[in-house]
Amino acid sequence: xxxxxxxxxxxxxxxxxxxxxxxxxxxxxxxxxxxxxxxxxxxxxxxxxxxxxxxxxxxxxxxxxxxxxxxxxxxxxxxxxxxxxxxxxxxxxxxxxxxxxxxxxxxxxxxxxxxxxxxxxxxxxxxxxxxxxxxxxxxxx
Length: 141
Known about the structure:
The structure is a single chain. By secondary structure, this protein is an all-alpha fold. The chain has 2 domains: 44 residues, Arc Repressor Mutant (Orthogonal Bundle), CATH 1.10.1220; 92 residues, no CATH class. It is built from 6 helices and no strands. The protein is elongated and about 65 Å long.
C-alpha cells in the first residue's frame, strides 16, 4: 500500500470526518472509499450526459437525510401527464417536430430522476439503511 499526503479544504475534511464517524471508520478509510467510488463511477457513467453523471457522482457527498429526499423524488405530475399525452398521440397519429423535441426533454427528465433515485438508494443501502420502503415509481400517479 502506498502513502499519500493530501491537503483537503476544511469543508471537505469536515464532510469526510462526519461520514467516518457515522460509519464508525477512520477518515483515511472514508477518503480511500470515496476515491475508489469516484474512479469506478467514471467508467460506470459512460454514455450518460456529463451534467447528469456529475450530479449523480455528487450524491455520495450528501448526508442521509438529503439522500432520502433524492430517493423519493418523482417527476412532477404535470410533466408525467404530458409525457403520457404525447405517448398516446405518438401511437395514434405521430408527433410533429416540436412534440418530438418536447418528448425528448421529458424523457431526459424522467431518466435523470430515475438515475438519481437509483444511485441515492444504492448509497443509502451501502450506509446500512433499509430501502424497502421506497416506492419504486419515479413518476407521479
